[in-house]
């Protein structure tokens, strides 16, 4: 009887089935939050800013971020936003890892990213050489909308401060 139960398991966030899906959730945990298991997300753009990520997640405290890299993707720009291209490795993508703690956090991330991006499994490597299975957001629309420009976090932070009327960094 227990072997039958093993055959009905849903894919986990780190199974091959989950890394190939374009569905916005893994194992349909949004239907049953008790099935949710915390897992690492890799961020490479605006979400690498802890204060911005805290706003997206609706957290009062700063999220713990860990510098990390992934290798499986290329990067282009969609306006002011970076976009990873699935299966076009060019060079390491530097960013941060965050361990998502709840289905609500994951839903907020998906809402922020919109349908222009989809979740995709990846291998996250930390500076100490350790690796963990994780998830990132990759481009989910017409690649013709993307440009070959790079993403500069310092420029992005400066633009965000200026748009809030805070002036230049350090003033």
Question: Shape, please?
Answer: globular
Number of strands: 7
Biggest sheet layout = 5 strands, mixed, barrel
The structure class reads: alpha+beta
- β-strand percent reads 25-35%
Mean pLDDT: 78
- Summarize the amount of helix as a percent range: 10-25%
**Neighbour order of strands in the largest sheet:** 1-5-2-6-7
Contiguous low-pLDDT stretches (5 residues minimum) are: 1-29
Order of helices and strands: HHEHEEEEHEEH
Distance from N terminus to C terminus (CA atoms, Å) equals: 67 Å
Rg of Cα set: 17 Å
How many individual helices? 5
Your description of this structure?
There is one protein chain. The protein is α+β, with helices and mostly antiparallel strands and 171 residues long. The protein is built from five helices and seven strands. The strands form two sheets. A five-stranded mixed barrel has the order 1-5-2-6-7. The protein is globular and about 40 Å long. Residues 1-29 have low confidence and may be disordered.
